[in-house]
């Protein structure tokens, strides 16, 4: 299965339109969006960016980011593409999602205590599933801010160490675009789409 991984659009619908145009000539199976579709705005902003991807008529699933308005999750639910606190299965591969971030110093819109992240993942996950998260795991290359601080989720880190999912797609930390590993788990932060970044990831039914 070929995944197009997108994160941190932050309301830049022009970049969303450009990527959708590029994808019209590409072979892929699913688009996964790891949150921050808007920049502290609501469903109208999210709807505009998402519309370009929906026109591709491919499966799309998304979680909200900590900077998405409260009604963005409602929109994702109405469109049938929300993966927040849910599990879906496509082409024989399970995908579990959780949006928002762990608690930050900035009191953004969607923030959760670590125990909520831990509980949701443990409730929904089945062995071999992919994770679609907004927040990255703590203490990795993909959760380091420009000041050098690691600000990812410790609950997610612990979950990965214990369950070893094959792949985690995340975002949130714009400057931490990259790839890392925890044991057998591959972690991908595609980088923010508002700067033109996205990732193409190939996964087989064994999760590799």
From TrEMBL:
Could you identify this protein by its name? Calcineurin-like phosphoesterase domain-containing protein
Signal sequence, renumbered to the chain: none
Q: Which domain of life is it from?
A: Archaea
Pfam families per the UniProt record, alphabetical: Metallophos (PF00149)
Q: What species was this sequence derived from?
A: Thermococcus paralvinellae
Q: Which GO terms describe its molecular function?
A: hydrolase activity
Every copy of the Calcineurin-like phosphoesterase domain together lies at 1-175
